[in-house]
Specification:
38% of the residues lie in helices and 20% in strands. The protein has 21 helices and 26 strands.
């Protein structure tokens, strides 16, 4: 029998009483990094929860939460849930139309927002959201002219004290684990967003079970920079807070590199794009060196490759390789670790498959990356590599209280405490993803190896089928291409075509360094994208990296793009996964040109 799991507000209260963390929440201000103690966090939660109750928020009412990662995000979340209310998070940079759709679909009764940009957007959209009766905003500046339009968070929590805390404890005790806690709208790679209904049990069990084997310490700090509107960061942060780990919030993902040095976290959840960019920056910085320093760096990379069987897989290597690794660790890898704060014990990777070669590299330089797998519908973690059981190249074994099986067509099916109750207001869509025996259809293709580790192949809907009937999984190919220091991003195309091709986004910083090294004049991104020497370089990289693949999996042609894919263009999800159908539509003309002479294809020619 599984253990008894509490509702989220009870988990929060237990952590406050047990750990009394003096810096439960950390945030950057004009003064630098400041902190909020667990005791003060509870006071603010209790004050806001009482204010929401006075505004008429009752159990089951939906409340929008529209803010970037900040202390107020979790304060509002626990305040809403302490009433039995349902939190409806909205991505802080969401478009007005999707913001309106989500809040209307959920019939949100109130909205909590933070900072000027989000408050301004709510003000502009409010006439289109008739269900919203109240808006509470935190951190508004005087100059925006918005202060008269909203209730002020700071004023609402100011008078809270022991009476409000006692009142909160009493209300929270009445919230049951099987109650609805949140409705999370999927960003989706295709189609209209759906509201995923997750209970307190779904989330509290997942936050507990997925992190149970981690040895957290009193001085641990987690950097929270993935959007809290997405369930991955949210559940991880619950796990941190419930175990007494300090959470340092970062409102802008663009400042991650700086924050790693300032906060010096010990654990951080990230997505493959983070590790791809991190590796590219390491290589680019090393290649800026000249003379002896450049030679040492290149030797360090070669040594890492030779030592990977030992450091990533625990296999034997020669004494010579071990000796070289120890030297490289002291003079090369230690500097890489210092570049991310010098205290990282754990990187968690989720949201999409991570290239095996990248995982090997980070493990070899003593920056362990534990890959996991899950979906919004599973709260999210289904399987995870852990300190007690890790196998590079997989996404780990199923976490406790999750049953996983593979269907005949390779689809991963899941059953367990973390699986959603359904899609909000969409009974037909809910029935479509569940079998009669309760197993949830993930839509992902995978297999379980001989040691019980799960290996993800690709999304079922994203498999490409060539005109010759061959199925091609694009993600592993794209991950291979992105291990090149000269390729920032890539997407494989070619569904129903005679062969697959690729759209390639170069790493323009690396190309500029390469140009200077070879005596060429640096130029704009557009000029480099069309330069013949760049096409020759990328052609060689693609041929080199895809050499181990089957012939039908190798991109036979490629096009060079002059910009990366962007969330602002609706080409990426919250967790930076490619929206394939959108990208294919945006670059339809480019793709058509790749297949212009399809009647006489030249499989080995790059155009």
């Amino acid at each position: 029998m599984p253990p008894t799991y509490s509702a989220l507000p009870t988990c929060f209260l237990t952590a406050v009483d047990r750990f009394a963390n003096p810096r439960a929440q950390m945030y950057r201000s004009e003064k630098g990094w400041e902190s909020i103690s667990a005791k003060e966090m509870l006071r603010r939660v209790a004050g806001l929860s009482k204010a929401l109750a006075a505004l008429g928020i009752r159990a089951g009412d939906r409340v929008g939460l529209f803010a970037a990662n900040c202390p107020e995000w979790h304060i509002a979340d626990f305040a809403i849930q302490g009433l039995g209310g349902v939190t409806v998070p909205v991505y802080f940079n969401e478009s007005p139309d999707r913001l309106v759709y989500i809040l209307n679909d959920a019939s949100a009764k109130a909205v909590f927002t933070a900072r000027d940009a989000q408050a301004r957007k709510i003000a502009e959209c409010r006439p289109r959201i008739p269900s919203v009766e109240h808006v509470i905003s935190a951190g508004l500046s005087e100059a925006e002219g918005l202060r008269d339009q909203f209730l002020h968070y700071e004023s609402l929590i100011a008078p809270a004290g022991d009476a409000e805390i006692a009142e909160y404890r009493g209300r929270a005790a009445g919230v049951k684990a099987d109650q609805l806690a949140t409705i999370i709208y999927t960003s989706g790679t295709t189609g209209e967003p759906k509201g995923v209904m997750l209970t307190h049990l779904n989330l509290s069990s997942n936050a507990t079970d997925s992190l149970e084997s981690y040895d957290f310490r009193p001085d641990d700090v987690a950097l929270s920079f993935l959007p809290l509107a997405h369930v991955y960061e949210r559940t991880m942060d619950y796990g941190y807070l419930f175990r007494g780990v300090s959470v340092a919030y970062l409102e802008k993902m663009e400042t991650v590199a700086e924050a790693l040095l300032e906060v010096r976290p010990t654990i951080t959840a990230a997505v493959p794009r983070f590790f791809e960019k991190m590796y590219a920056n390491i290589v680019e910085k090393g290649h800026r060196e000249t003379g002896l320093k450049r030679s040492i760096f290149d030797w360090g990379l070669r040594t890492a490759q030779a030592a990977a069987p030992w450091k990533a897989y625990g296999k034997p290597v020669s004494p010579s390789v071990k000796a070289q690794w120890h030297i490289a660790d002291a003079i090369v890898y230690s500097k890489i670790r210092e570049g991310v704060g010098g205290r990282i014990r754990t990187f968690c990777s989720g949201g999409a498959p991570l290239a095996k070669e990248l995982a090997e590299f980070f493990w070899t330089v003593n920056l362990p990356v534990y890959q996991g797998y899950g979906l919004t519908e599973t709260s999210p973690i289904v399987a995870a590599n852990l300190p007690v059981a890790n196998r590079v190249g997989t996404v780990g074994r199923p976490i406790p209280h999750v049953d996983l099986r593979i269907a005949e067509d390779g689809e991963i099916l899941v059953k367990g405490l973390c699986v959603m109750t359904g899609y909000y207001g969409k009974p037909e869509e809910t029935r479509a993803v569940f079998f009669a025996d309760g197993y949830f259809r993930t839509g992902d293709i995978g297999q379980i190896d001989e040691q019980g580790y799960l290996v993800i192949t690709d999304r079922k809907k994203e498999l490409l089928k060539t005109a010759g009937g061959k199925f091609v999984a694009p993600a592993p190919i794209e991950n291979l291409l992105k291990t090149s220091p000269f390729i920032a991003n890539a997407i494989v195309v070619g569904d129903t075509r005679k062969f697959v091709s690729a759209l390639v986004v170069p790493d323009f910083v690396a190309l500029e360094s390469e140009a200077l090294k070879n005596g060429l004049e640096p130029s704009s991104a557009g000029q480099m994208a069309s330069a013949e020497w760049v096409r020759v370089l990328l052609s060689r990289e693609i041929e080199r990296l895809t050499a181990p693949l089957a012939q039908y999996e190798k991109p036979k042609r490629f096009a060079v793009l002059d910009r990366d894919f962007a969330y602002a263009n609706d080409e990426l999800t919250y967790t930076l996964k490619l929206k394939r159908r959108v990208i294919e539509k945006h670059y339809a003309d480019v793709i058509e040109r790749l297949y212009a002479d399809v009647a006489e294809p030249r499989p080995q020619q790059f155009v």
